[in-house]
Design goal:
Structural class: alpha+beta
Number of strands: 5
Length: about 100
C-alpha cells in the first residue's frame, strides 16, 4: 500500500516497478552486489540485494510512485533512497547502507 492509499499491484504499475528495479539491479551488479528480483502475486515487487562479502547483510528495495506520478526507490524500512531516474545515486546509497566497497 502506498502513502496515498493505493496498492501498487495493478498490472501496469507492477510492470513499471519491475522495470525500475531491473535498471537498478544492473547498476548494483556493477557495484559487486548479488541481486534477486522477487515478484510474487499479491506482494510488492522487490529487489533483494546481498553483500557478497558479508551475505548476512541484505536489504529489500522497492519502487513505488507518488501521487504526482514520480517513481522513487525505497528501502524495506520505508527509507526513501532516491528518484528512480537516478539509479547511480540509488546504488551508491544502497552501497552505503550495506557497506560494500567497490572492486
Amino acid at each position: 500500500m502506498r502513502a496515498d492509499g493505493n496498492a501498487i499491484t495493478g498490472n501496469a504499475t507492477t510492470s513499471e516497478a519491475v522495470d525500475h528495479l531491473q535498471r537498478l539491479a544492473c547498476q548494483l551488479e556493477a557495484h559487486a552486489f548479488k541481486v534477486e528480483l522477487r515478484s510474487c502475486t499479491g506482494l510488492f515487487p522487490r529487489l533483494h540485494v546481498i553483500n557478497p562479502m558479508a551475505p548476512s547483510r541484505t536489504e529489500d528495495v522497492f519502487a513505488a510512485h507518488e501521487q504526482n506520478g514520480e517513481w522513487w526507490f525505497w528501502l524495506s524500512w520505508a527509507g526513501r533512497i532516491g528518484h528512480a531516474d537516478d539509479v547511480a545515486t540509488a546504488a551508491e546509497r544502497i552501497a552505503t547502507v550495506l557497506h560494500v566497497t567497490r572492486r
